[in-house]
Amino acid sequence: LEIRKGKDRPVLPLEQRMQVMDAIRHVDYVVSLPPLGTVEESIEPTIQTMELLRPDTFLTPYHIWEQFVDEITQSCGAKVQFFTSPAVHSTTKMIAKAAEIYKHSQR
User: Fold this and answer.
1) SS3 label, residue 31
2) CA–CA separation, 104 vs 107, rounded Å?
3) Where are the alpha helices (DSSP H) in 1-107?
4) Mean pLDDT for the stretch of residues 78-95
5) Count of helices and strands (H, E) across the chain
6) At residue 64, does pLDDT exceed 70?
7) Is residue 50 a contact partner of residue 78, using CB atoms and an 8 Å limit?
8) Which of 96, 22, 87, 89 is nearest to 59 (CA)?
9) 2 has a pLDDT exceeding 60
10) Which one of 12, 53, 68, 105 is least enclosed by Cβ atoms within 10 Å?
11) DSSP letter at 21?
């Protein structure tokens, strides 16, 4: 996230984001792999982790994984599902709104 959105991001640390996901009743495992640069570099450790955990579903917001759906399904049997993060809780929008309010308060 820092690479995509800037040095002061993410606002919520990884551990807190993982706790939020873990609190969802239907979630059994929340795993974060270290950023490896490219998806191609990430696929092997991701599949190794999934082979150990044997999840029913691999849920990701990153559609770049679409090219690996067959490989993931064949290696560990997981169904791959993609989701779009709701903009309702967008920290980008919250930061922009806070900056706007601050800017107007300085006039």
Assistant:
1) coil
2) 6
3) 2-5, 14-22, 39-53, 69-76, 91-105
4) 75
5) 5, 2
6) yes
7) yes
8) 22
9) no
10) 105
11) H
